[in-house]
Amino acid sequence: MGCWGITAFESDAGLDAKGFIRENLPEDGKLELEKILEGLQHDAWNAPPDVMNAESHTSPMALAEIIVKFLDREVDSLDNAGAWAEKEKKFGAVTSFTATREVVRWLRDYLCDTLNYAMKGAEERRKWGGWFQKKDWHAWQNHMAVLIGRLDGVLSAEGQSLVLFSKAEPNEKQETDMGMTMQQSI
């Protein structure tokens, strides 16, 4: 496995997870975080490693980056372009993305624990958390903190069922300051 940057999408592990999620996008366009996470957890290649390993690029990190793309309505940037990718399922075809508070909390805690174990390991034995350059170590920590913060924002919404994305018409939705789409009450 290799990486060429600090984000999950700049690593083999992250791109493998993104590809696995793409292959399992639902035909009806209704994406559910619980089903994605369950699939990743049961896949031998993409199963999340123990947080105590403090791996810098994981499938949960890729999943958090995908959630942020949906929150920021940058879904099309997740799809590959070109003739070679025409038959692939498209994230852009997703019409809704929902999650339970419990699963968002699990994902947030996983990232937080991974970051904490990486920082502890850097203090005890692994200079710069295993990164070759100090600047990458600091940039990765910051990136993880941003992902955790975005998930905290999702968790600040009310209710057990959370809408991460919806292709509702503009007059049918309102944007919140955390980038989530919340359906207006009728």
What would your notes on this structure say?
With 186 residues, the protein is mainly alpha-helical. It has one domain (8-183). Helix content is 44%, strand content 11%. The protein has five helices and five strands. The protein has a three-stranded mixed β-sheet. A two-stranded antiparallel sheet has the order 4-5. α1 (12-23) crosses α3 (59-71), α3 packs across α5 and α4 runs antiparallel to α5.
List the helices and strands and how they pair.
Layout lengths: L11 H12 L6 E3 H10 L16 H13 L24 E5 H24 L9 H22 L5 E6 L6 E3 L5 E3 L3
Parallel strand pairs: 1-2
Antiparallel strand pairs: 2-3, 4-5
Supply the key terms:
186 residues, mainly alpha, 5 helices, DUF4259 domain-containing protein, single chain, disordered C terminus, 3-stranded mixed β-sheet, two-stranded antiparallel sheet
Number of helices: 5
Through-space gap between termini:
49 Å
| Count of structural domains | 1
In N-to-C order, the SSE pattern is HEHHEHHEEE
Question: What is the rounded Rg?
Answer: 17 Å
Question: What order do the strands of the largest sheet run in, or round the barrel if closed?
Answer: 1-2-3
Quaternary structure annotation? single chain
How many beta strands in the DSSP annotation?
Answer: 5
pLDDT averaged over residues:
89
Q: Which residues sit in consecutive blocks of at least 5 with pLDDT less than 50?
A: 172-186
Largest sheet: 3 strands, mixed
Give the % helix: 40-55%
- Tell me the strand percentage band: 5-15%
Structural class, judged by helices and strands?
A: mainly alpha
Organism: Sinanaerobacter chloroacetimidivorans
Protein name: DUF4259 domain-containing protein
